[in-house]
Write a structure and sequence with these properties.
Blueprint (H helix, E strand, L loop, with lengths): L12 E5 L3 H13 L3 E5 L2 H11 L3 E4 L9 H11 L4 E5 L4 H9 L4 E4 L4 H18 L7 E3 L2 E4 L4 E4 L2 E3 L3 H12 L4 E3 H9 L8 H14 L5 E4 L3 E4 L1
Parallel strand pairs: 1-2, 1-3, 3-4, 4-5
Antiparallel strand pairs: 6-7, 7-8, 8-9, 10-12, 11-12
Length: about 230
């Protein structure tokens, strides 16, 4: 398969955490040719060091890493300190892995074998969504028992601040800004994940479940059976 012509590396830094050198080098080549700066790590510790020191635009993360720390744990550790977009790149296509990865705050899930061209397209799509999610409103939003500060990207309940992942926050903002409107899962994916997002509509259910777990009764979100969700 021919790769695209070399492009200037001006689209940000991508950290690849992948122990298979052939896959890592292939992804590296295509991303560099697409204009990204790329850093490779073959194990968890080095990948976390890159994330902490380099502040990348995106992390491509294999689940089945060698050693005691796998990709799931790496994602969990990243989410403790960073909202950098994380895309799982893995041979494991089990639904439990996909759901767990999304619950931890992963932004996409690409299963091997994959098309390098599709991978680049999905990396770009995740970055476009992330850039769009950071367009803020000047005034905080209030809904139910919540205050949503889109400038500081903070959520507060009567009990205090609540930490959300980047995607959970974006979904909450969409609900809070559009109360009493019923949205289908597909509409939510198009609005929050972006119209180019490729994936299962149950991703929305996973994130709604996480919002309800973290925010409890302070979030007036209703399930409209057979349709989708509405925030009152």
């Amino acid at each position: 398969m021919a790769s695209p012509s070399l492009a200037k590396a001006d689209h940000g830094t991508v950290v690849i955490v992948e122990d298979d050198h052939h896959i890592a080098d292939l992804v590296d080549l295509w991303l560099r040719n697409a204009g990204f700066r790329v850093l490779q790590a073959t194990e968890a510790r080095r990948g976390l060091e890159f994330v902490a020191k380099e502040h990348p635009s995106l992390v491509l993360l294999d689940i089945g890493l060698p050693g005691p720390v796998d990709g799931i744990e790496v994602c969990r550790e990243i989410r403790r300190t960073s909202e950098v977009p994380v895309v799982f790149l893995t041979a494991r296509d089990d639904e439990v892995d996909r759901v767990l990865g999304l619950e931890l705050g992963a932004d996409d899930y690409i299963v091997k074998p994959f098309s390098p061209r599709e991978l680049v397209a999905r990396v770009r799509a995740v970055l476009r969504r992330t850039e769009g999610s950071h367009r803020v409103r000047e005034n905080p939003l209030s809904v139910g028992g919540l205050t949503v500060d889109t400038v500081r990207r903070e959520v507060t309940t009567a009990a205090g601040p609540v930490r959300l992942t980047a995607r959970e926050f974006d979904l909450l903002v969409h609900f809070a800004a559009n109360t009493r409107i019923v949205f289908t899962r597909r509409q939510l994916l198009d609005s929050v994940w972006g119209p180019g997002w490729i994936g299962d509509e149950r991703t929305v259910d996973v994130h709604v479940r996480q919002l309800r777990r973290k925010l409890g009764e302070a979030l007036p979100l209703k399930t409209i059976w057979g349709v989708g969700y509405r925030c009152d």
